[in-house]
From TrEMBL:
Binding-site residues for heme b, renumbered to this chain: H89
Domain Globin: 5-142
Organism taxonomic ancestry: Bacteria, Bacillati, Bacillota, Bacilli, Bacillales
Keyword Ribosomal protein among record annotations: no
Occurrences of domain FAD-binding FR-type (ranges): 156-267
UniProt cross-references to PANTHER family, sorted A to Z: FLAVOHEMOPROTEIN (PTHR43396)
SUPFAM superfamilies xref list: Ferredoxin reductase-like, C-terminal NADP-linked domain, Globin-like, Riboflavin synthase domain-like
GO biological process: one example: nitric oxide catabolic process
Binding of FAD, residues: Y194, R210, Q211, Y212, S213, F401, F402, G403, P404
EC assignment: 1.14.12.17
Protein name from the UniProt record: Flavohemoprotein
Annotated organism of origin: Salipaludibacillus neizhouensis
Stated role: Is involved in NO detoxification in an aerobic process, termed nitric oxide dioxygenase (NOD) reaction that utilizes O(2) and NAD(P)H to convert NO to nitrate, which protects the bacterium from various noxious nitrogen compounds. Therefore, plays a central role in the inducible response to nitrosative stress.
Catalytic activity of the protein: 2 nitric oxide + NADH + 2 O2 = 2 nitrate + NAD(+) + H(+); 2 nitric oxide + NADPH + 2 O2 = 2 nitrate + NADP(+) + H(+)
Length: 409
């Protein structure tokens, strides 16, 4: 990841813009998306418009630009961020021809927001820097495209799959079992990865792409996704694709998906005890990890911890109970925020309220384990704070965002 083609003056100017980006980054990226979509509406087929309305996508891009400016003389520092974004780009089918468009409107947005403060020197420096950063992403993504296509059963682009089974898990969560329409093999994947699904929703002007974690272990003749039907939150409308899948996609229907991607993955080279912590539909990649561990590493200790409002919102509870009963290496704990009377009567949970460090310490023998967690943003912040307070090293915990990456600090 070389910046040798950038001269010292260019690097100095780019780094000098760090305070400006920190202050105006979200405004710049919001303006960038407005200008780009106005001039290239075809890109609305790729970008998640719900994340645009929530502001999460502009914030994520602003954080990336800020990091790139901060480390422009040592881009190796942000390799993990680059790879994480590149996985999403490959899954969404972002191609090299998209980068000049992004660069053009990013520079225009900087100028539009900063006005006279954006000098010709700054524009030139950022133009050069963007070219280097874009080349890095293009090369990383090229390797990912080639790797995905080279897998047995792998492919590039979108491929048609048939909904073999549709299974209701809760009122808001449903599993879809997907098999290739042409009957061919499907590639393996690493537990924790996701696929992109593309839908052309009736009356919609543009196709919609969403990413969903694979919720079963690899090696099957199907992919399984388990999306939650997203409902209205403040001024953000119902989840367009999740509601479409739940209400309008049935067994026998055809959907288009990309091959598995993602870097939130279970390390199968290790054998140390694993703790899988989830809330809500964040359990989907954890189920994939759990199923894989008991199939491929049956001697490996795993603790599965799940938080939900109550049993009415708790998907796949019976499955995890079955795993815990079948394998003495699997422990299972449940935390309900507001348990129902039936939950209280049947004692279907171990903790009432919210997950906290005191409870984690009471159910885990020690912190000498590797932790994976996924769920709503406030939940993940709480888990990260608890692990930090418990002095769990950063390289011993891993987490996944559903959507653009946010800050957990």
């Amino acid at each position: 990841m070389s910046t040798e083609q950038l001269d010292a003056k260019t690097i100095e100017i780019v780094k000098s813009t760090v305070p400006v980006l920190e202050e105006h980054g979200a405004t710049i990226t919001k303006r960038f998306y407005e200008m780009m979509f106005d001039n290239h509406p075809e890109l609305l087929n790729i970008f998640n418009q719900t994340n645009q309305k929530k502001g999460t996508q502009p914030r994520a891009l602003a954080n990336t630009i800020y990091a790139a400016a901060q480390y422009i003389d040592n881009l190796e520092t942000i390799v993990p961020v680059v790879k994480q974004i590149a996985h999403k780009h490959r899954s969404l089918q972002i191609k090299p021809e998209h980068y000049p468009i992004v660069g053009k409107y990013l520079l225009l947005a900087i100028k539009d927001v900063l006005g006279d403060a954006d000098t010709d020197d700054i524009t030139d420096a950022w133009g050069k820097a963007y070219g280097v950063i874009a080349d890095v992403f293009i090369q990383v993504e090229k390797d990912m495209y080639e790797e995905a296509s080279a897998l047995k059963g792998g492919w590039d682009g979108f491929r048609q799959f048939v909904v073999q089974n549709k299974v209701k898990e809760t009122d808001a969560i449903t599993s879809f079992y997907l098999k290739r329409k042409d009957g061919g093999a499907i590639p393996t994947f690493v537990p924790g990865q996701y696929i992109s699904i593309r839908c052309t929703i009736r009356d919609g002007e543009y196709s919609q792409i969403r990413q969903y974690s694979l919720s079963d272990s690899p090696g099957k003749d199907y992919f399984r996704i388990t999306p939650k039907k997203e409902t209205t939150d403040n001024d953000v409308p119902d989840g367009l694709v999740s509601n479409y899948l739940h209400k309008s996609v049935h067994e026998g229907d055809i959907v288009e998906i990309t091959s598995p991607a993602g870097d939130f993955i279970l390390d199968l080279e290790q054998s140390e005890p694993v703790v899988l912590i989830s809330a809500g539909v964040g359990l989907t990649p954890m189920i994939s990890m759990l199923n894989t561990i008991v199939e491929q590493q049956p001697e490996r200790e795993v603790t599965f911890i799940h938080a939900a409002i109550n049993s009415g919102f708790h998907a796949m509870d019976d499955h995890v109970k079955e795993m815990a009963n079948k394998y003495n290496t699997v422990d299972y704990y449940v935390c309900y925020e507001k348990p129902s009377e039936l939950d209280q009567k049947n004692k279907t949970f171990q903790k009432e309220g919210y997950l906290d460090l005191e409870w984690l310490k009471s159910i885990l023998s020690d912190n000498n384990k590797v932790f994976y967690f996924c769920g709503p943003l406030p939940f993940m912040k709480a888990v990260k704070d608890a692990l930090t307070e418990w002095e769990v090293p950063e390289n011993k915990y891993h987490f996944e965002f559903f959507g653009p990456a946010e800050q957990l600090n």
